[in-house]
């Protein structure tokens, strides 16, 4: 995926988000004023990129500039929002309890406060070795659970 290197984190987020959104909206983007938030939930974040940067620093190697861009999960959440024209808030959470419950609670807060009409909830964790792990996406609000 252009703009993201070394790790499966961002491509996995994009894949599940696109699958979920395409099921409801086809190819996108959504029309302006859709009020769709992105809520990305990951306890570990992009552990593969973090490990790569840590190893490079320890070895005294130069760190590629793309790692600064992708070092925070909201970069890929923003990529999904821009690609699909999602114009609601972008929120990233590192849960301390049940990831889905915490993500749904955040989405419910955005919906009930009127900050969003619907929310794309993305749950992702890489495997302990940094390889693709598990990810899922669900569209919440406006009568949808895609």
UniProtKB/TrEMBL annotation:
Top-level lineage group: Bacteria
InterPro entries (UniProt xref): Ketoacyl_synth_N (IPR014030), Thiolase-like (IPR016039)
Annotated source species: Micromonospora chalcea
Lineage: Bacteria, Bacillati, Actinomycetota, Actinomycetes, Micromonosporales
Beta-ketoacyl synthase-like N-terminal domain residues: 34-125
Protein name: Beta-ketoacyl synthase-like N-terminal domain-containing protein
């Amino acid at each position: 995926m252009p703009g993201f290197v070394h790790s499966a984190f961002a491509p996995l987020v994009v894949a599940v988000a696109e699958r979920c959104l395409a099921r409801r909206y086809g190819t996108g983007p959504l029309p302006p004023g859709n009020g769709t938030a992105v809520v990305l939930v990951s306890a570990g974040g992009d552990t593969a990129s973090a490990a790569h940067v840590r190893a490079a620093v320890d070895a005294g190697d130069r760190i590629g500039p793309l790692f600064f861009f992708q070092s925070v999960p909201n970069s890929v959440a923003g990529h999904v929002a821009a690609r699909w024209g999602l114009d609601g808030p972008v929120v990233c959470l590192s849960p301390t309890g049940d990831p889905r419950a915490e993500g749904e609670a955040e989405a419910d807060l955005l919906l009930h406060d009127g900050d969003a009409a619907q929310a794309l909830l993305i749950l992702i964790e890489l495997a302990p070795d940094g390889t693709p792990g598990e990810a899922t996406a669900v569209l919440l609000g406006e009568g949808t659970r895609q």
